[in-house]
TrEMBL record:
GO terms for cellular component: cytoplasm. This is Imidazolonepropionase. Zn(2+) binds at residues 83, 85, 253, 327. Catalyzes the hydrolytic cleavage of the carbon-nitrogen bond in imidazolone-5-propanoate to yield N-formimidoyl-L-glutamate. It is the third step in the universal histidine degradation pathway. It is an enzyme of class 3 (hydrolase). N-formimidoyl-L-glutamate binds at residues 155, 329, 331.
Length: 417
């Protein structure tokens, strides 16, 4: 494969945002290179620097390289979305109409809609229908500059249907340019058939589903919707500990609707991330900081449910590493636009533009245990790079509801041009 290089020969205003060497820290060592270049060989970033530096270093080989001209544009790491419910069938615009008339998300779910409605359509869909519907969303993620997504099961709620979702996610990973990292979320809701005996459903998740998912190596993470009326912190703990025993790293949907001890539980079980956190207690936030639990914040969900977003500023100031995500799902956040979420991170959560870029790249990569290979433009990392057609990164965040994605390089190949 030919080496790939950005704009090596033209001096211009292209920029490379490097949010690298961040590890799990929020305090930005963000570096922007003006007139920058990246040299890629096969799937890997081989050199990063100014045009001048790379011109000197690679002069004898420039003729053999394929050049991507990023003149006047902004180059960032491929965006990473660490929390999606990508694989589902059906749509819930009817609930959107109900919410506009005053119904709440939980009221709709408790009346058999919400997650239960999508569970029904997802169970009924054929494997092919599920794949096609999910692929359409993944295509859209890519067109918005996203090169890796996490995808949860949780609309099957039986062993058979949870496996079906995870197998579709696996096939998408194998066939689509976007990498798909899988999370088992059998405990997304108590299915209606177990509504009078939720502990029996917890037992099935623990004794039947988790062992099978682990045996088939269909997921790396194990997530639970810990919320009043869904799973209690006690039940969530049982499920997350059971996953750990089978090699699944805990994640948790925590404190979305009310303070419920989810952030505290995340710290206690050593979760890699706690997600949502709109109502997380100060004590929970402190415990997350102490244990290095990443806060995956989803301001699009608050926007769409017309509630107040999580306090990202407070979490960052408390020393919690913050990542951002779309929470792409049919009920509380039907979007793939991570750039819009970044805009909300600034407007609704008190984060700086540099912090939201960090949160949607390197910190997001760490939230799915990929910080060593993606999330920054660094020598040795995978060549996952997005070029936005804006002259500086501020404009990427400042415009909202616009898609500035121009070119996407995934694994060293141009996949959007
Ligand atoms: O993260 N909160 C629970 N789960 C999803 C919503 C799923 C749905 O409504 O279909 C979320 O917001
Ligand atoms: Fe979610």
């Amino acid at each position: 494969m030919k080496p790939l290089i950005f704009s090596l020969l033209k001096k211009c205003t292209k920029k490379i945002v490097l949010s690298s060497k961040m590890k799990l820290r929020h305090n930005i060592t963000e570096r922007t290179i003006f007139y920058g270049s990246v040299w890629i060989e096969d799937r890997t970033i081989v050199a990063v620097g100014t045009d001048e530096e790379l011109f000197k270093q690679f002069q004898p080989r420039i003729a053999e390289a394929e050049t991507v001209d990023a003149t006047g544009k902004t180059v960032t790491p491929g965006l990473v979305d660490p929390h999606t419910h990508l694989v589902y069938a059906g749509s819930r615009e009817n609930e959107f109409a109900m919410r506009l008339n005053g119904a709440t998300y939980m009221e709709i779910m408790n009346a058999g809609g919400g997650i239960h409605a999508t569970t029904k359509t997802t169970r009924e869909a054929t494997d092919e229908e599920l794949f096609t519907a999910s692929k359409k969303r993944l295509d859209q993620f890519l067109l918005h500059g996203v090169t890796t997504v996490e995808a949860k099961s949780g609309y099957g709620l039986t062993l058979e249907h949870e496996l079906k979702q995870l197998i579709v996610a696996k096939k998408l990973h194998e066939t689509h340019p976007v990498d798909v990292v899988r999370t088992f979320m059998g405990a997304h809701a108590v299915p209606t058939e177990f509504k009078d005996n939720p502990d029996e459903f917890v037992r099935i998740v623990v004794e039947k589903m988790i062992p099978k998912v682990s045996e088939l190596a269909l997921a790396e993470f194990n997530d639970v919707f810990c919320e009043r009326g869904v799973f209690t912190p006690e039940q969530a703990k049982v499920i997350l500990e059971a996953g750990k025993a089978y090699g699944l790293t805990p994640k948790i949907h925590a404190d979305e609707i009310e303070p419920y001890g989810g952030a505290e539980l995340a710290a206690e079980v050593g979760a890699i991330s706690a997600d949502h956190l709109l109502c997380a207690s100060d004590e929970g936030i402190q415990k997350m900081a102490e244990k290095g639990v990443i806060a995956v914040l989803l301001p699009g969900t608050a926007f769409f449910l017309m509630t107040k977003a999580a306090n990202g500023r407070k979490m960052i100031d408390a020393g919690v590493p913050v990542a951002l995500s779309t929470d792409c799902n049919p009920g509380s956040s039907p979007t793939v636009s991570l750039p819009f979420i970044m805009n909300l991170g600034c407007l609704h959560m008190g984060m700086t533009p540099e912090e939201v870029i960090t949160a949607a790249t390197i910190n997001a990569a760490h939230a799915i245990r990929r910080g060593h290979e993606i999330g920054s433009i660094e020598v040795g990392k995978k060549a996952d790079i997005t070029i936005f057609n804006v002259p500086n990164y501020m404009q990427l965040i400042y415009h909202y509801g616009m898609n500035h994605t121009d070119t996407v390089i995934k694994n060293g190949r141009i996949v959007v041009a």
